Amino acid sequence: MLKIGQFNRLHVVEIFPFGYELLAYGGSSEQLVMLKDTSHVYTMGQELDVFVYTHADGSFLGAIDAPKVMLHQFAPLVVVGASDHGCFFDWGIKPDLYAPEGQLHTNLDIGTRYVVYALQDRIGKLVATTKIERFLHEHSQELSPNQAVSLLIYAQTPLGYKAIVNGEFQGLLFNSDLITSVKMGDYLEGFVKSVREDGKLDLALQVQTPQARLNLSEQILEDLIAHDGMSTVTDKSTPDEIFARFKVSKAAYKKAIGNMYKQKKIRIEKNCLYLNQDTV
């Protein structure tokens, strides 16, 4: 039985000038796979690990190299074509991966990257969808604060960016926790900032431990001392200005100077921070 959208162990049963015909052991003639590959030389009976997918006419095609997305996976792909009934994504093999109109959440622009999910349609053909949230778990009880996670950015909201977490959960990266510019389809390494009572995930790009906050406070003190007790980097500074100086997000910086103010180590004025003399 062929596994569509996955790698299969097949063997060569026919050799043509333009490629090879492959079959799984015990497979029927209805499951022949065409591998259009003239860059490699294979022999009759040779076993190959081949990615199997379907042509528009229902026949089976094979590829030696892995595509950019496989069945039940998420990936950022670029739109390379459109029709009246859907659009086509570049997924690294030919023909391009089709997304029917009903699987698109909005009108897509050619040349733009979107995060898609690969699934099989009702007749078993591999297709793409941009309606991905139904394939993500909204809640997670298995992740904990400060746990390292992999992120794939898939949408922007007024609050920040939605991300796929570890390939299965959805989470939110707030604008205030950004330390660099972010684009749709970016892969990032991040951390769980908090797990809400309902199990939803808030994310960060830096670890949020007490030790990290203490280290940042020490950095700010050293910077103030080095600049004669005064700094123009305040809670009103841009995220880029803060990151350029301290390599942290604006949210982390605001929390640090807020704690330092409460401890009477600094005073905060309109455009500057000042080191209190008894702190030195």
Quick rundown:
The chain contains three helices and 18 strands. With about 280 residues, the chain is mainly beta. It has four domains: about 5-65, Beta Barrel (OB fold (Dihydrolipoamide Acetyltransferase, E2P)), CATH 2.40.50.140; about 75-135, OB fold (Dihydrolipoamide Acetyltransferase, E2P) (Beta Barrel); about 135-205, Nucleic acid-binding proteins (OB fold (Dihydrolipoamide Acetyltransferase, E2P)), CATH 2.40.50.140; about 210-280, Orthogonal Bundle (Arc Repressor Mutant, subunit A), CATH 1.10.10.10.
Could you characterize what this model shows?
This protein has four domains: 7-63, Nucleic acid-binding proteins (OB fold (Dihydrolipoamide Acetyltransferase, E2P), Beta Barrel); 74-133, OB fold (Dihydrolipoamide Acetyltransferase, E2P), CATH 2.40.50; 136-204, OB fold (Dihydrolipoamide Acetyltransferase, E2P) (Beta Barrel), CATH 2.40.50.140; 210-279, Winged helix-like DNA-binding domain superfamily/Winged helix DNA-binding domain (Arc Repressor Mutant, subunit A, Orthogonal Bundle), CATH 1.10.10. The relative contact order is 0.09. α1 (210-226) crosses α3 (250-262). The protein is elongated and about 85 Å long. It is built from three helices and 18 strands. The longest helix has 17 residues, at 210-226. With 280 residues, the chain is mainly β. Helices cover 14% and strands 37% of the residues. It has helices at 210-226, 239-246, 250-262, and strands at residues 7-16, 19-23, 33-35, 47-54, 60-63, 74-83, 86-90, 97-100, 113-120, 126-129, 148-156, 160-165, 169-174, 187-195, 201-204, 230-231, 266-268, 273-275. The strands form four sheets. Strands 1-2-3-5-4 form a five-stranded mixed beta barrel. The chain has a five-stranded antiparallel sheet with strand order 8-7-6-9-10, with no helix packed on it. Strands 11-12-13-15-14 form a five-stranded mixed barrel.
